[in-house]
Amino acid sequence: MKPFVLLATRAEDVPADGEYELFLRGAGLDEGDLVRVRLEAEPMPPIDLDAISGIIVGGGPFNASDPPEQKSAVQHRVEAEFATLLDEVVARDFPFLGACYGVGTLGAHQGAVIDRAYSEKIGVVPVSLTDAGASDPLFAGMPATFNAFVGHKEAARELPASATLLASSPACPVQAFRVGANVYATQFHPELDLPGIEVRIHSYGGYGYFADHELEDTLASVRRAPVSEPQRMLRTFVERYAR
Known about the structure:
- The protein has a single domain, classed as Rossmann fold, CATH 3.40.50.880.
- The longest helix has 20 residues, at 73-92.
- Helices cover 33% and strands 26% of the residues.
- It is built from 7 helices and 11 strands.
- InterPro entries: ChyE-like, Class_I_gatase-like, GATASE.
């Protein structure tokens, strides 16, 4: 099998390594089948789409909607690299699954309106499939509404005509969308399980997702309802596109 590539941007080793392990486990891959590139540490290497099965993008610290003068040199580089990569990915309709930061990368590339109008605190939310989502192969076998972990400062407020809305939540109208037939982005985190999000909560105190005194409430918010369905998407993605 040709490998999949995980493009990651987390600078902190504990949540970065945890994210990689979650994608491996959720997708049913071993390390040889999922090549990780840490973009916060090094420029994106040349990616030969003919040599891989697909691209997965993890979450991260960058917000596409931040004013340019507030973005670091690393963020500007990463955004430029994604723009170039997505030119080819979208043109070829190449398998791509962006989780959380996928909205900031693919959404920005396609001209979505991305801002802080529909941010969501860290927690569990019900995600409901649209008619298009219910018939999409990536969501095969999933219920019409399922619980998922979220936590994001920005979101897509409006999608361009090139995108098909696949899922929404009560507080965030764009939880998943597709461009073409094979290019996907989700706002929720399909890779996360409860231990994984608890690690992230402890790792990202002081990053603006919650106040210091809200730590215990934030942990309680991710424990209030079971989350079991989203990881199925990862395995479906791999089964559908492995070659």
